[in-house]
Write a structure and sequence with these properties.
The protein is α/β, with parallel strands linked by helices. The protein has one domain: Leucine Aminopeptidase, subunit E, domain 1 (3-Layer(aba) Sandwich). The protein is 39% helix and 18% strand. It contains five helices and six strands, in the order ββααββαβαβα. A six-stranded mixed beta sheet has the order 1-6-5-2-4-3, sandwiched between helices. A hairpin with a 7-residue loop joins strand 3 and strand 4. Helix 3 packs parallel to helix 4 (130-147) and helix 4 (130-147) packs across helix 5. The longest helix is centred in the middle third of the chain and has 18 residues, at 93-110. The chain is globular and about 40 Å long. The relative contact order is 0.21.
């Protein structure tokens, strides 16, 4: 059971699974989602399209997680999770964000995956305040690791600022 922080390109990490900060359609987008889809190649989009919709144009509701192969990525799998859009914190955003991290670890454990790398979910276009997101993610991951202690987590920051916030939350 461990959590470490790295500054890296998530799509280059050779782990069992990387976590994708996806949207509800799972059909690609901008930011981390777009980078993962580009790096994995067109088979990832086909695999996402094959996942069942649970509502019109929704394959993965906010706070839940789904899994696909990693295709051209060094990671064997991609766990897709949909973080909340920040609306000031009054629409259950902290609970939904925590659920993204916990559910991703649960999906990994169900598939016997032990090394996971996470981006800063909801911290890009979804506007979640970075310091708050760092705290929520670390608390949720520590809870998840109590249930799944064989899992090793890498928090993958795209820049030194987010890495610093995660390190402070871990301290």
């Amino acid at each position: 059971m461990s959590i470490d922080v790295q500054i890296a390109d998530l799509t280059t990490l050779a782990v069992d699974a990387i976590v994708n900060a996806a949207n509800v359609t799972l059909l690609g987008g901008g930011g981390v989602d777009g980078a993962i889809h580009r790096a994995a190649g067109p088979d990832l989009l086909a695999a996402c399209r094959a996942l069942p919709e649970v509502a019109p144009r929704v394959r993965c509701p906010t706070g839940e997680a789904r899994i696909t192969p990693g295709f051209r990525l060094p990671a064997r799998f991609v766990i897709h999770t949909v973080g909340p859009v920040w609306n000031g914190g009054s629409q259950d955003e902290p609970a939904l964000l925590a659920s993204c991290y916990r559910r991703s670890v649960e999906v990994a454990a169900r598939h016997d995956l032990h090394t996971l790398a996470f981006p800063a979910i909801s911290c890009g276009i979804y506007g979640y305040p970075l310091e708050d997101a760092a705290q929520v993610s670390v608390i949720a991951l520590r809870e998840a690791l109590r249930l799944h202690p064989a899992t090793s987590i890498t928090l993958c920051a795209f820049n030194p600022g987010m890495a610093s916030l995660w390190r402070a939350a871990l301290a």
